[in-house]
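In the previous chapter we treated chains in isolation. Here, by contrast, the input contains two separate entities that must be folded as one system, with a combined length of 226 residues.
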Amino acid sequence: KNQVEQSPQSLIILEGKNCTLQCNYTVSPFSNLRWYKQDTGRGPVSLTIMTFSENTKSNGRYTATLDADTKQSSLHITASQLSDSASYICVVSAAGKELSFGAGTTVTVRA
Amino acid sequence: SQTIHQWPATLVQPVGSPLSLECTVEGTSNPNLYWYRQAAGRGLQLLFYSVGIGQISSEVPQNLSASRPQDRQFILSSKKLLLSDSGFYLCAWSPLRTGATGELFFGEGSRLTVL
């Protein structure tokens, strides 16, 4: 069973609207959590990193949250643009272990 | 600045043919290097990682092998491709061993189709 579960698997939103992606994990002991953006046919690029003590972190129109108690993270996209169309991957790092990757959420922004 | 190059970007190979994907990193020394495979609808799967020249660790037993002949060069190979080897292969590097706070920097990927 995958230790990082993302939802929804995919979503379609209209340009200018907001959306929220979810990431639940069971990885332990928790070290940090990163959200990556992967454009179609390209390699993933890191958007944010969340450590245990951080609850919220923003990178432009992207805002990530972390609840280490419930082992949940979210990525909120504000005022979506066509360029936000991509897959968003949640990656959790555990001390002394390999990274655990979620399957990703595919976001499609339509004009 | 550091850059990572991966090639070829796309290739179509018949079953039983050999494979060689290359990856090089510029602008850094002693990087940790990784090969991942990404299947549709699934998370990235770590295939191999290397912490130094000639040091290769395999995460999943399979039809593939990896080599690191130089500090910043990582090669993914196969002697005889299988249909199941089709997928999107990503090379990545990091300045720290995964499991720490080190970020992974990915190449552009190689789309392999085995027919």
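Chain A has a mean pLDDT of 93. Residues 7 and 16 of chain A are 21 Å apart (CA to CA). Compare these points with the single-chain example from earlier in the chapter.
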